[in-house]
Amino acid sequence: MKISVQYLVLLVLIIFVSCGPSDEDKARVKIDLAKNLLVKNDTAEAIRQLDSIPKLYPEAMYSANAAKNLLQEVRFEVMQRNEAELDSVEVQVAELEKSFVKEKTEFDRYSQYTHKRQTFTRAWDRSYIQVHLDERGELYLSSNYHGENWLNHTGLRVYDSGDDAKTDTIPIGSVDNHRSDFMEAKWEKVSYRNGKDNGVIEFIANNVDRNLKAVFLGNEYYYIILETYDKEAVRDALALSKAIKKRNKLQQEIKALGQKINIQQ
């Protein structure tokens, strides 16, 4: 009986494929990989590997169930760690908040944190740098000028002994470049939102102990020496901003993990 070459090739291929690793075998390899990743504390990649098993190997029912159970355990452990970390961050936020007044007016979308040394009654009649923080942890800086003549300033540079940081330019007429006058007094307020402080916040926060100076940049230059309490206000606001954002991130992660665990139970 003659057998064609094509038939023999097809038969060999069928035998080869049938003798290859099954979905169960491949899935078990993935589970072992995930376990090794957990030993190395690469939890995120381990979760990704376990989560992919049911999709990649739909025939691996036993291994898929084992992966699901292990995934449950891993997510629960991660959630517990996040909850413990959240408790610590909550304490940090509460401690940092003591330096601020938190309020929300009819004009505010979010509650605002004002440092106790930079409230309106303490600062309305001086030229200084102010830090602004809201309940989301969003942070920005403003330069506030008070004097007899207009500066028409559009930027700010903070410096000391050859080190400096300079904001972006905020053009006159833009919503973040505001000015007003009353009798002979002039006020100018330039706000550096959405990262336009260009590193000035970090520079001040990291150099509170230095004799920092600032120059308001405009048609005329106006120089001030930063008060210690203004530098501390920037430092405290930056620390609180980071803590609030970390708290919010942990809360979101805990909620997401809880939902995934409940869905799979």
Automatic annotation (TrEMBL):
Domain of life: Bacteria
Keyword set includes Coiled coil: yes
PROSITE patterns reported for this sequence: PROKAR_LIPOPROTEIN
UniProt feature coiled coil, ranges: 79-106
Keywords assigned by UniProt, alphabetized: Coiled coil
Protein's name according to its UniProt entry: Lipoprotein
Organism in which the protein naturally occurs: Draconibacterium orientale
